Amino acid sequence: MEDVKNFKIEGWRLGVGGVALASGFWLLSTFPWAWWALFIGGLIAWAVVFQGHARAAFSMPKKLWIIPIGIVVYLLFGLVVGNLALKFGLNWSANPAAGHLGLLIFKIPFMLMGEELLGIGILEAARNKGASLTTSTLLSALIFGLMHVFVYWDGSWFSTLLHVLLLQGVARLIFNYVYLLMGKSIWGSWLTHVGVDLLALL
């Protein structure tokens, strides 16, 4: 994707994009039939916020070998963190979709592209407004982690927040850097995200 600092994003565009993403996420979280909502909301947000520049993010990814590395790094990290959580007596909730891969296999690609449009969109919008790469990707990871709170709610704010920030938040950091390392192609982070979720849901 073209460096976002090379063009100006008006404030109203960010507002409309934020509403589109928030609406898509709310529909996805509220209604089982709205599995497509964040994907559609994300497409609308990108079209409004990044306009024609958005097409560059859908270019062919470079360095395809980064994808399996990203998947393995996250799965190993998740395994270590999960075992440590058990040792400290934390009763973290499993993904409610685990074991139901067959029912979701055709929906997952669209749902995860919606999450990528949200995560990468926050990263690039923050950079456009002058935030550093570190600040932008941390903001993206924080929001991405927090949006999973009610999916992994275990009855404790401390435990749930620790869970989503350490696992989903760190996953977002990995996906963001895969995106950047693969030539700012959202296909790279999306393929990595799909690989992680498919293996996690088996």
Summarize the topology:
Blueprint: H1 11-30, H2 37-49, H3 66-87, H4 101-104, H5 108-128, H6 133-146, H7 157-181, H8 186-201
Helix pairs in contact: 1-2, 2-5, 3-7, 3-8, 5-6, 5-7, 5-8, 6-7, 7-8
Family: Belongs to the UPF0177 family.
Organism: Enterococcus asini ATCC 700915
GO molecular function: endopeptidase activity
Order of helices and strands: HHHHHHHH
Multimeric status of the protein: single chain
Strand content: under 5%
Distance between the termini: 33 Å
Count up the helices. Answer: 8
Q: Please give the domain count.
A: 1
User: Which structural category fits the helices and strands?
Assistant: mainly alpha
Query: Roughly what is the average pLDDT, rounded to an integer?
Result: 94
- Radius of gyration, whole Å: 17 Å
Overview of the structural elements:
- The protein has 202 residues and is mostly helical.
- It has one domain.
- It is 67% helix and 0% strand.
- It has 8 helices and no strands.
- Helix 1 runs antiparallel to helix 2, helix 2 packs parallel to helix 5 and helix 3 packs antiparallel against helix 7.
- The N and C termini lie far apart (33 Å).
- The model has no long low-confidence stretch (mean pLDDT 94).
- Keywords: Membrane, Transmembrane, Transmembrane helix.
- This is CAAX prenyl protease 2/Lysostaphin resistance protein A-like domain-containing protein.
